Amino acid sequence: MRTLLDPDGEWPHPRGEGATGSCRADAELGGRLDVPERTRLRWHRAELLDPDLRPSHLITTWWTGTRPTEWARMEAEVVLHHLTADEGEHLGLPTGMAAWLIQRTRYSSTGRPVETADMVLPADRWRVRLR
Fold first, then answer.
1. How does DSSP assign 92-105, residue by residue?
2. pTM for the full predicted model
3. What are the residues facing 73 on neighbouring strands?
């Protein structure tokens, strides 16, 4: 069992499969990024691996325009989540299994959201203790 303390920290182990693309903001993502619905967003999904190269958790990140490299602060919220079929496939776990969903948003120095992400961590492998 691992404990996640900082959802904004660097992952010290390898990454597995990744994908990048674009989509239109729905109401929820638009609200998190403070943009109108249907705004074009870029996204990246990464599979993060344990030191033994097994899937640890997933992170999907969305942003507008150029991906930001600097931000002033971060906020995160943790909710209980059940794995979707796609998430379960990436993690090698059954659909519907309990997981932690951490919704992390990074903000510029002016307070504007510049990037938001969903981290999905299987609840049987992770505890979450945010500082």
1. T--TT-EEEEEEEE
2. 0.93
3. 107
